[in-house]
């Protein structure tokens, strides 16, 4: 018994050693955490030769984003993991969900694209009832004076309450407001316990979940390293490592960004959110400035602006619990698309289905045609829209003669525009996430199978990549289908991983 346990730990230690060796130098981890889910910070750092401290944990979750956090919450909530002491999340950031929060804030989005049923808590209605909880709290504060208030005033309170509730969710598809969604995330029994030790730690885990998120932000070939380094002349909106929140364009109250020309590259919702945010700011600043007629914000996209409610159809998002509820209520249960996908044995075909069903570079109707939508901002000349790609760029001095401070973008449509800043909204690289760490794991562990066609992990129904390694997010795409990367995908992944233990 002792031997087999030791053997298990040794096997896993090999895997974790690879994390440490290739990418993740894990900081010290306190054994006396007080938080619900503990997290340690990991760094990209060269391997150290000194002896590392060894920590045993039953569950190691690599990645403290939307997926890692929800899976941890579900493992605990379902009883598969009985104590918070048995689960540990490691991440390269200082806090859980930092990447999500920075990226979404950086885009300037107000509402999520997905609807209220997709969040980090276990109960599907948790976000909706969180709304009730917060609004009821406000209502009861109002009601504390109920006896001395006149009837009219109370009615006004109810009206205000209704207004407030309606602003927490969009009118279409009940999409939550970003700040409200994030408050709910913070409530999902997740608190951070960081230990700022630079000591190297080997984790010995019985089970590992790889929840690494997407690959790196995609940088167009015409952008040089020096463009990215030079005073933020070119910045990727989804690059979260060096985002300083006070200087994110459009977020700053210091108006140094206000009288400048900005080009946004991309034709999806990220580009649209940012363009609208900047255009709002720019037009409010230019009320007195009648001289300048050309827009300060330019949107450059290779394709026409395309409308689509979700990047993946909701048919791909139904989990098995919802399917059961549907059946119990006389419905069809799991949508046909999902059933056929599960039956398909050919990984190449699965990849093709994902490519067809997951459409990047689209806008919700609300962002395009809703109140103050992109379409109208373009018509009013607040945003300059160019259907083109950048053919060439040239760095030039700015108005004050400061060298290399502006960029001329020559576009495929024949136009040239001179701008002070370029913001890339070009999504993520379409390659296997996890970089060298995952590549080395695959090379060194013959049991970690990948598709010959796309190189993504081949996993079991329960998302097992090997006996003790599970995957989530993009890494689980071939099993979960086109919604694997979304919040819905986190819920699908958590359900499958939990089932591996509940059924056994
Ligand atoms: C701007 C934006 C808006 C979006 N809006 C929606 C929406 O409305 N609805 C929806 O369903 N989806 C949305 N998505 C898509 C998706 O839900 C998010 O991208 C989500 O953050 C994915 O969660 P994740 O945990 O897979 O990745 P992330 O949130 O990126 O988390 C991954 C974590 O893993 C860590 N990590 C990676 N490698 C290592 C390593 N080797 N060692 C340690 N840690 C590591 C990273 O530091 C990171 O913290 C949006 C995405 C973006 C970018």
UniProtKB/TrEMBL annotation:
Gene3D superfamilies: FAD/NAD(P)-binding domain
Region (Disordered): 280-304
Residues spanning the membrane: none
The name this protein goes by in its record: L-ornithine N(5)-monooxygenase
Organismal lineage: Eukaryota, Sar, Stramenopiles, Ochrophyta, Bacillariophyta
């Amino acid at each position: 018994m002792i031997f087999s346990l030791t053997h298990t730990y040794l096997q896993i230690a090999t895997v974790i050693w690879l994390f440490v060796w290739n990418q993740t130098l894990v900081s010290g981890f306190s054994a006396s955490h007080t938080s619900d889910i503990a997290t340690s910070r990991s760094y990209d750092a060269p391997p150290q030769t000194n002896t590392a401290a060894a920590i045993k944990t039953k569950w190691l979750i690599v990645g403290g984003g939307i997926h890692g956090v929800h899976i941890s919450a579900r493992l605990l909530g379902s009883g598969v993991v009985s104590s918070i002491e048995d689960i540990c999340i490691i991440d390269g950031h200082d806090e859980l969900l930092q990447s999500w929060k920075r990226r979404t804030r950086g885009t300037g989005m107000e509402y999520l694209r997905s609807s209220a049923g997709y969040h980090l808590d276990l109960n599907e209605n948790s976000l909706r009832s969180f709304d009730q909880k917060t609004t009821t709290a406000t209502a009861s504060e109002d009601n504390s004076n109920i006896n001395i208030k006149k009837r009219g005033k109370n009615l006004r309170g109810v009206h205000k309450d209704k207004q407030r509730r309606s602003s927490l969710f969009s009118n279409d598809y009940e999409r939550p407001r970003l700040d409200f969604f994030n408050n709910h995330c913070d409530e999902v029994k997740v608190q951070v316990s960081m230990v700022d030790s630079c000591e190297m730690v080997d984790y010995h885990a019985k089970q590992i979940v790889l929840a690494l998120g997407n690959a790196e932000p995609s940088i167009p070939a015409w952008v040089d390293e020096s463009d990215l380094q030079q005073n933020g002349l070119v910045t990727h909106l989804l690059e979260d490592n060096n985002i300083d929140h006070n200087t994110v364009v459009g977020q700053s109250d210091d108006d140094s960004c206000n009288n400048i020309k900005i080009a946004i590259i991309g034709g999806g919702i990220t580009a649209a959110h940012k363009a609208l945010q900047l255009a709002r700011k720019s037009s409010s600043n230019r009320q007195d400035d009648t001289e300048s007629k050309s827009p300060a914000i330019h949107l450059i996209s290779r394709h026409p602006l395309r409308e689509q409610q979700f990047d993946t159809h909701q048919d791909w998002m139904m989990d098995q619990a919802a399917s059961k509820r549907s059946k119990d209520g006389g419905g069809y249960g799991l949508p046909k698309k999902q059933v056929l996908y599960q039956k398909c044995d050919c990984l190449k075909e699965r990849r093709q289905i994902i490519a067809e069903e997951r459409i990047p570079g689209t806008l919700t109707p609300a962002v395009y045609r809703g109140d103050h939508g992109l379409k109208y901002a373009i018509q009013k000349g607040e945003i300059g829209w160019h259907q083109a790609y950048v053919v060439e760029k040239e760095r030039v001095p700015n108005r004050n003669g400061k060298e290399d401070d502006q960029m001329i973008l020559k576009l495929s449509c024949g136009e040239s525009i001179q701008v002070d800043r370029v913001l890339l909204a070009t999504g993520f690289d379409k390659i296997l996430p996890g970089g060298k760490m995952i590549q080395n794991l695959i090379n060194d562990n013959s049991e970690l199978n990948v598709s010959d066609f796309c190189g993504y992990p081949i996993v079991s129904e329960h998302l097992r990549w090997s006996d003790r390694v599970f995957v989530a997010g993009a890494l689980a795409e071939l099993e979960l289908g086109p919604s694997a990367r979304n919040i819905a995908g986190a819920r699908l992944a958590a359900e499958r991983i939990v089932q591996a233990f509940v059924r056994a």
